[in-house]
Amino acid sequence: MTVDAETFRTAPLDEQAAAEIAACGLEVRLAEDEESTLAWRAAVRRGFQDREPEERNHEAGRPGTAYRRRLGVYDAAGALPDMPVATFATWLSELTVPGGRAVPASAISSVTVAATHRRRGLARSLMAGELREAARAGLPVAMLTASEATIYGRFGFAAAAAAATWRIDTRRAGWLSGDAPGRIDYVSREDARRIAPELHERIRLRLPGEVIVPGPHWDDMLRLRGDAEAAGAVRAIQYRDAAGEIQGLAAFTLDRTPPTPATLEVVFLYAATDDAYAALWHFLLEHDLVGTVVATERSTDEPLWWMIADQRAAEIRLRDHQYVRIVDVAAALQARRYEQAGSVVLDVTDPLGITAGRYLLEVADDGTAQVRILREGEATGSVPLASLGIAELSAIYLGGVRVRTLAAAGRIRTDAVDRVDALFRGSVTPCLTFWY
Ligand SMILES: CC(C)(COP(=O)(O)OP(=O)(O)OC[C@H]1O[C@@H](n2cnc3c(N)ncnc32)[C@H](O)[C@@H]1OP(=O)(O)O)[C@@H](O)C(=O)NCCC(=O)NCCS
């Protein structure tokens, strides 16, 4: 049984984290009222090396973010005692897992520590406290996107879905795929803002790694916030099928800075059908006066690769993107579906002690799973064993990396690599189409 969003948002602070922070002469509390929320936001901007907020940022940043649990660490002895020296946000979201389903998840963002207070363990205390809180709230996983790849592994996170950046030379690419029967039309950014959440909701359960897009992120992507720079640079197009149903939406910018031809940058592209996918990409790749199309946060397994005539017209760069951290092994593993039946004993270590233990995962013929925590020394017969850290279990959870690969990398030890590999494999490559 998981909590509702408001109970999660206002849950009491983790006592251990509060005590560790108090031992440093600091205080952690939730930023709730308007004034402390503004100061909290200003601290986030400072932490991410953004400019000081202007009045219009205050106005623009206000609506739509009340869903966030905002933790601030305050230094009463500092010169700005009302401005947090550390910030941390979480909210109740959902993560799509293999099998066309989603698990409740704690989404983490806005992790900053002021340069004056860095490397004293503040981020560690806040992270460990909020992961324990997520487990207490009955959430199977926590998740985040990271500014640097080296920060979160130590807390048990792993990049469970990679992101691909595509850079396509449109003059070379060519088009092998056929023409879709529907039509493409420009839509206003406001209409795109209305269409996008509904379309995304229709497709997100098909994409392991995808999460609920918080409303303000659509405003950011479509530059609809009052403080957005060069807002009019964003164009949006929709694809309607032959029956007139909207099945696809894309937003993009065009950079005409010389040397021309221009670069077209895809802000997002969502398609509910193969036809919509083909039609939107075809439109973007054949845009006049454009020499390069750049798209970030795409899947590493895009059909597009097989739709262009010259695959060397595309440069594809991979990056870690969607970080996942299982905080309840049984709930997480039971929530996803599996491609085939089988069993494995998972001997899990956890740097924060939240999930450490031995688990028996049993997958039935219909792809559903049962997980049992094993007692100390309990016999498991001939069931294969895999020993791994919680980061490695989180890495294989969405099917984004194979057990075989992690075993070869020395990060999973198992006496039955083929069987465990077959168990965790996913049929859809996970991805996440935005940052949060
Ligand atoms: C990243 C950040 C939040 C870390 O805060 P912090 O309070 O200095 O971190 P801690 O003191 O709790 O460090 C915890 C551990 O992480 C390590 N660590 C911290 N920041 C790190 C970084 N940027 N890269 C690699 N390791 C890092 C520390 O060395 C420490 O390691 P250890 O406990 O294994 O010895 C802080 O440096 C920051 O605000 N950076 C700029 C904003 C940012 O990038 N935030 C992350 C958003 S996803």
What can you tell me about this protein's structure?
The protein is 27% helix and 31% strand. It is of the alpha+beta class and 436 residues long. The chain folds into 3 domains: 5-139, Aminopeptidase (3-Layer(aba) Sandwich), CATH 3.40.630.30; 175-307, 3-Layer(aba) Sandwich (Aminopeptidase); 329-424, SCP2 sterol-binding domain (Nonspecific Lipid-transfer Protein, Chain A), CATH 3.30.1050. The strands form 2 sheets. It has a 12-stranded mixed beta sheet with strand order 1-2-3-4-5-12-6-11-10-9-8-7, with helices on both faces. The chain has a 5-stranded mixed beta sheet with strand order 15-14-13-16-17. The longest helix is centred in the first third of the chain and has 15 residues, at 122-136. The chain is globular, with a radius of gyration of 23 Å. The relative contact order is 0.14. The mean pLDDT is 96. Bound molecules: coenzyme A (COA).
CATH topology annotation of the largest domain: Aminopeptidase
Total count of domains: 3
Residue-averaged pLDDT, rounded?
96
Encode the helix/strand succession as letters: HHEHHEEEHEEHEHHEEEHEEHEEEEHHEH
Number of helices: 13
Which structural class do the helices and strands define?
alpha+beta
Name of the level-1 CATH class of the largest domain: Alpha Beta
How many individual β-strands? 17
- Main-sheet strand order equals 1-2-3-4-5-12-6-11-10-9-8-7
Radius of gyration over all CA atoms, rounded:
23 Å
- Return residue spans where pLDDT drops below 50 for at least 5 consecutive residues: none
**CATH architectural label of the largest domain:** 3-Layer(aba) Sandwich
The description of the largest β-sheet is: 12 strands, mixed
Task: Write out the CATH superfamily name of the largest domain.
Answer: Gcn5-related N-acetyltransferase (GNAT)
Name the helicity range.
25-40%
Say which molecules are bound, naming each kind only once.
coenzyme A
> Strand-residue fraction?
25-35%
Distance from N terminus to C terminus (CA atoms, Å) equals 26 Å
Q: What form results from the Cα inertia axes?
A: globular
